[in-house]
UniProtKB/TrEMBL annotation:
Keywords: Oxidoreductase. PANTHER family: DEHYDROGENASES, SHORT CHAIN (PTHR24321), ESTRADIOL 17-BETA-DEHYDROGENASE 8-RELATED (PTHR24321:SF8). This is SDR family oxidoreductase. It comes from the Bacteria. Belongs to the short-chain dehydrogenases/reductases (SDR) family. SUPFAM superfamilies: NAD(P)-binding Rossmann-fold domains (SSF51735). Pfam families: adh_short_C2 (PF13561). InterPro entries: NAD(P)-bd_dom_sf, Sc_DH/Rdtase_CS, SDR_fam. The keyword Oxidoreductase applies.
Length: 262
């Protein structure tokens, strides 16, 4: 196992489940010091306990990413505890399924707050520390930030914001040697999407549309996050990397060859 993150301090949001939890595991397994936060401290403790990391390698904090003061306190506590910050992983995000005429104002603001405001808050607090270490930001965006979905307009708007924020901050901080990139997961098998996989109709739709014929795993997203965070990506900044089994490579036209062989 390569040890790309020995001596590196990584702060992650929404780290108790799914992609965030896999990112913690991956980065820790390659030597990183982990500062993990989540809305639920109990869920975080339950999820990260089994990793058995020593106290000098792990800090856990409750942090609601929609609250700028909490996000700043999380970043400040990380630096106070470990002396530096090398990598920030902004992983929180929230969707809402609705037509534009139906979505309540509060629900719209919540999607934007969890998904987009959170990235601004964390980057605002972390950037001076990342400049000091010539560090990196990796955002968990989405393919939903690259294109439109049916009934997910608020999420599309918020993730689209994350995608372009990623580019803009990459440009602003390139001369400081702080790289800013994002992974854009396609369908990923996490607790959030379990209901989709349990719905036979939705699963059949995905089966026909996903070129690789399966959802991604949280570990596959974590591998991409780790790559973008690592020095192997030293000349990559401002990139929104689809990790989607080919979904965004396709036009979604009928699958002629598969139909012919059926
Ligand atoms: N699962 C997918 O198919 C998929 C696809 C594309 C993008 N994404 C993105 O990946 C990221 C992680 O998704 P996941 O599927 O692993 O989710 P998940 O549901 O498994 O985990 C989400 C975590 O976020 C935490 N959280 C929720 N609100 C929060 C808040 N206000 N402050 C802090 N933490 C909060 C939850 O407690 C939970 O631990 C999200 O940004 C999501 O939009 C997921």
């Amino acid at each position: 196992m390569p040890q790309r993150f020995t001596g590196k301090v990584v702060a992650l949001t929404a780290a108790a489940s799914g992609i965030g939890l896999s990112a913690v595991r991956k980065l820790a397994s390659e030597g990183a010091v982990i500062s993990a936060s989540d809305l639920s401290i109990d869920a975080l403790k339950e999820a990260l306990g089994p990793l058995d990391l020593s106290e000098d390698r792990l800090m856990m904090r409750q942090c609601d990413v929609t609250d700028m003061q909490q996000v700043r306190a999380f970043i400040d506590d990380t630096v106070e505890r470990f002396g530096q910050l090398d990598i920030l992983v902004n992983n929180a995000g929230l969707g809402a399924l609705a037509d534009v005429t139906e979505l309540e104002e509060d629900a719209w603001h919540k999607v934007i707050a969890v998904t987009l405001d959170s990235v601004f808050y964390a980057c605002r607090a972390a950037m001076p520390h990342l400049v000091r270490t010539q560090g990196a930001v990796v955002n968990t965006a989405s393919i939903s930030g690259l294109f439109g979905d049916n009934g997910l307009f608020a999420y599309n708007a918020a993730k689209g914001g994350v995608v372009n924020l990623t580019r803009a901050l990459a440009v602003d901080y390139a001369r400081d040697n702080v790289r800013v990139n994002a992974v854009c997961p396609g369908l990923t098998a996490t607790p959030r999407t379990a209901w989709m996989m349990e719905d036979a109709k939705i699963k059949a739709e995905y089966d026909s549309r996903l070129p690789m014929g399966r959802p991604g795993t949280p570990d596959e997203m974590a591998d991409a996050i780790a790559f973008l965070a690592s020095s192997e990506a030293s000349y990559i900044t401002g990139v929104n990397l689809p990790v989607d089994g080919g979904l965004t490579a396709a036009t979604n036209q009928p699958q002629f060859l598969r139909m012919r062989s059926d």
